[in-house]
């Protein structure tokens, strides 16, 4: 970007925040942009969009400004840090010392941790400027971001629709340009679903890759923290900072891809199927080798549901009868409490079998291509999707199986923008790789992005013109 185009010269802050974090970082490194200027640009955008979107919570601009000024005034402070000066906010499931961290629950409405989650410390060392937290559903349960403490987060493309979840606040704020990059966490699709809904990129790393992922028991290995951004290169720089890994990239030429639009048996909304199939054809035309087929995931839904419920029971056993906690969380706790040892042992054994079968798949293919979400962003007043194409769904996580089935194998998955429905709603594709092949998947995702493109920013002027009082409310909790 020419010097004349940066803030303080002729460009507006609106233009700056729509650039990739990778571009912003380069401007910061060469001194053509200050951390204070970037923070001010993000704040300007947040002031426009937050009254409608409600993605950012516990915001402290003064604290963030002090951090940005310190970075600008002392070049030795965080010198060489990989994200120095980029603006972010931590998901409200991540303990942040001195900052209200509610986990989306009234039970913790006034909770201020005294110790950081390890990932918070890692990112602080990487040089980020933290402005607050990003909204999440209560205890991260469900892929729709609403709670009784902070309210509902709305989709930047249509504020009458869900932003997804549980990293919905992060996805919406990124799409709006209020953040440069953001951390998310993912069990059943909590990074990938909101990325699809908001038209950004969300990466779930291989299990055990990112520090700070909490687990209540050694048998619970599915949860993962991960990076979110507006393009793959942004996700790459954030993941590198999170893991301290090498920036070296493997060579990827002509990926061999197993493509399944429905996993063999999942209901998928027609608009999603059309755009995902279109994306597969575009990649095939670009030289990718696409083969249709089913995924080797025996007993995957039972395995996921058992271990998910076990995790909630072990984390939150004292909240089963607490009426302040939403019904779906108490449902998970109750189901986990009722599990017998044989059921748990079977689920753990199934997870091992599924991971082995999925690993073996990559002897003949390099990637798996599926829809990220089975549906487009749904109405903001619905707690969850109860029907797809006339197929009734009994449990609040049933509509998320296009993601949750690819959680269990333990490998990396990424959601990329694939286009928009006739109603202008974003749809994502999901690329998944072999365990440990995160670097390969990221390179392949950049190749796919070069074919499919990145999503534009939402219509900020239209979005900021909405009267929040005139929009449909979120679910009643």
What does this structure look like?
This protein has 477 residues and is α+β, with helices and mostly antiparallel strands. It has one domain (16-470): Alpha-Beta Complex (Amidase signature (AS) enzymes), CATH 3.90.1300.10. The protein contains 15 helices and 17 strands. The chain has helices at residues 13-17, 21-30, 35-53, 61-73, 118-125, 168-176, 192-198, 232-243, 270-285, 300-315, 327-337, 341-361, 401-404, 438-452, 460-464; strands at residues 56-57, 87-91, 129-134, 146-147, 151-152, 154-155, 158-162, 182-186, 201-204, 224-229, 256-259, 289-292, 367-371, 387-388, 391-392, 413-420, 426-432. Helix 10 (300-315) packs across helix 11. The longest helix has 21 residues, at 341-361.
Which SSEs are present, and which pair or pack?
Elements: H1 13-17, H2 21-30, H3 35-53, E1 56-57, H4 61-73, E2 87-91, H5 118-125, E3 129-134, E4 146-147, E5 151-152, E6 154-155, E7 158-162, H6 168-176, E8 182-186, H7 192-198, E9 201-204, E10 224-229, H8 232-243, E11 256-259, H9 270-285, E12 289-292, H10 300-315, H11 327-337, H12 341-361, E13 367-371, E14 387-388, E15 391-392, H13 401-404, E16 413-420, E17 426-432, H14 438-452, H15 460-464
Parallel strand pairs: 2-3, 11-12, 11-13
Antiparallel strand pairs: 1-3, 4-5, 6-7, 8-10, 9-10, 9-16, 13-17, 14-15, 16-17
Helix pairs in contact: 3-4, 6-7, 10-11, 10-12
């Amino acid at each position: 970007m020419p010097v004349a185009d940066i803030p303080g010269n002729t460009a507006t802050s609106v233009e700056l925040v729509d650039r990739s974090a990778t571009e912003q970082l380069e401007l910061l490194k060469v001194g053509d942009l200050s951390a204070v200027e970037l923070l001010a640009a993000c704040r300007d955008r947040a002031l426009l969009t937050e009254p409608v979107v409600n993605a950012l919570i516990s915001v402290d601009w003064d604290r963030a400004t002090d951090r940005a000024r310190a970075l600008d005034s002392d070049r030795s402070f965080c010198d060489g840090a990989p994200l120095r000066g980029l603006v972010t906010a931590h998901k409200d499931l991540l303990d942040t010392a001195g900052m209200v961290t509610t986990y989306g629950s009234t039970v913790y409405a006034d909770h201020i941790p005294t110790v950081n989650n390890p990932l918070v410390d890692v990112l602080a060392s990487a040089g980020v400027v933290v402005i607050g937290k990003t909204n999440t559903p209560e205890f991260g349960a469900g892929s729709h971001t609403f709670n009784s403490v902070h309210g509902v987060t709305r989709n930047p493309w249509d504020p009458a629709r869900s932003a997804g979840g549980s990293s919905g606040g992060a996805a919406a704020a990124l799409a709006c340009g209020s953040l440069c990059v953001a951390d998310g966490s993912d069990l059943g699709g909590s990074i990938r679903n909101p990325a699809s809904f908001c038209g950004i990129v969300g990466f779930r790393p291989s299990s055990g890759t990112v520090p700070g992922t909490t687990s209540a028991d050694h048998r619970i290995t599915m949860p993962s923290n991960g990076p979110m951004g507006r393009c793959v290169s942004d996700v790459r720089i954030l993941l590198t900072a999170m893991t301290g890994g090498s920036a070296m990239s493997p060579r990827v030429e002509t990926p061999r891809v197993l493509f399944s639009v429905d996993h063999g048996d999942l209901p998928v909304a027609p608009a999603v199927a059309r755009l995902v199939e279109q994306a597969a054809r575009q990649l095939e035309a670009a030289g990718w080798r696409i083969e249709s087929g089913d995924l080797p995931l025996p007993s995957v839904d039972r395995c996921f549901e058992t271990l998910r419920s076990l995790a909630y029971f072990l984390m939150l056993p004292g909240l089963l009868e607490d009426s302040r906690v939403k019904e779906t969380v108490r449902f998970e706790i109750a189901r986990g409490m009722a599990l017998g040892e044989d059921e748990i042992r079977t689920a753990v054994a199934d997870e091992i079998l599924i991971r082995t079968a999925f690993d073996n798949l990559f002897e003949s293919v390099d990637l798996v291509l599926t829809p990220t979400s089975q549906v487009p962003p749904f109405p903001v007043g619905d707690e969850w999707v109860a029907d797809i194409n006339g197929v009734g769904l009994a449990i609040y996580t049933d509509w998320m199986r296009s993601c949750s089935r690819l959680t269990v194998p333990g490998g990396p998955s990424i959601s990329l923008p694939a286009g928009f429905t006739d109603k202008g709603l974003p749809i994502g594709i999901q690329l998944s790789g072999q365990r440990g092949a995160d670097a390969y998947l990221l390179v392949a995702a950049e190749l796919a992005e070069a074919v499919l493109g990145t999503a534009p920013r939402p219509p900020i002027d239209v979005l900021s013109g909405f009267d929040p009082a005139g929009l449909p409310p979120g679910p009643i909790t």
